[in-house]
Write a structure and sequence with these properties.
55% helix, alpha+beta, 2 domains, 119 residues, 3 helices
Length: 119
């Protein structure tokens, strides 16, 4: 990854560490497009982000609310990435819990459907 200008960061700010690669930053600030790649074991809480992403893709109303929140916060915290991230965390946490519950319900429904088909 270093050969294509990614910077490796071993993230230890969560209970379970994970790998984080970033591209597009320089000592002078942003340099072109920004990229973030997060890599972890499949049991890592980082995977909650996939539940969140998939739920937004399936729920236009929630996606629009998140978009509105992000635009508002981007203006408010234009030069403070940490504050921006923190300000949207409660929304993300709440929607992620909804997403996981929805995925579990969907999985239970599929299992029940398959069981009925077998009977």
């Amino acid at each position: 990854m270093a050969a294509i200008d990614y910077i490796f960061i071993w993230r230890t700010d969560e209970k379970v560490p994970y790998m984080h690669f970033v591209k597009g930053y320089s000592p002078e600030g942003f340099k072109g497009n920004l990229f973030h790649i997060h890599m972890s074991d499949k049991t890592h809480p980082l995977w909650d982000r996939i539940f969140f992403r998939d739920y937004l893709r399936q729920n236009k109303r929630v996606a629009t609310a998140y978009e509105t929140l992000k635009i508002s916060l981007a203006e408010k915290y234009k030069f403070d990435r940490e504050a921006y991230t923190e300000a949207k965390s409660e929304f993300i946490k709440r929607i992620t819990e909804e997403a996981k519950a929805s995925a579990l319900l969907s999985q239970d429904t599929k299992l029940a459907d398959n069981t009925i088909k077998e009977i």
